Amino acid sequence: MDLGATLCTRSNPKCEQCPLSIGCQAYSNHNWIDYPGKKPKKTLPEKTALFLLLQDTNNHIWLEQRPLRSIWGGLFSFPQFYEFKELLCWFDEHDLPINEHFKKMVPFRHKFSHFQLNIVPIWYKFFNNQRCIHKKNGLWYNLNQPPKVGLAAPVKGLLTQLTISKKNNLLEIIN
């Protein structure tokens, strides 16, 4: 018999029918509203990731398809790094110079069931019309005519922010 679901309820306890009422603290103190107590909130581990928002002069953003066996598996996302020097190595591998067009946007948090991801968007606009990145697991996402591809929620949000900022000539940058 499930006592918690049938007899020992918070809103309408049936203590007189319960076989355990003799040793019950809630029954003897008449404070059954306090039982069962709330579980302490579990603190989730945190990770921080840098998202690279690489934009060309035609308002295309570079996205890479995530590995199938990962968070957001198979969806398209920005290149992601856990340390700034990884991002710098990526720039070096793709012959991208770091200049004054390299900006840090306002960070935000995305919650998963098992951890929290602190996302630091790094926006970089390059002015060379020759696209330097051609990988089979990526695409140049057209902000003016978005392709129909699967995107993770934070990626959608950042792409929307870029589209709106392009129209209003505003981009929330922190230095």
From TrEMBL:
Cofactor: [4Fe-4S] cluster
Cross-referenced SUPFAM superfamilies: DNA-glycosylase, Nudix
GO biological process per UniProt: base-excision repair; mismatch repair
Positions of the Adenine DNA glycosylase C-terminal domain: 52-160
Cofactor note: Binds 1 [4Fe-4S] cluster.
PROSITE patterns in the record: ENDONUCLEASE_III_1
UniProt cross-references to Gene3D superfamilies, sorted A to Z: Helix-hairpin-Helix base-excision DNA repair enzymes (C-terminal) (1.10.1670.10), Nucleoside Triphosphate Pyrophosphohydrolase (3.90.79.10)
Keywords: 4Fe-4S, DNA damage, DNA repair, Glycosidase, Hydrolase, Iron, Iron-sulfur, Metal-binding
Top-level lineage group: Bacteria
Similarity comment: Belongs to the Nth/MutY family.
Protein name (Swiss-Prot/TrEMBL): Adenine DNA glycosylase
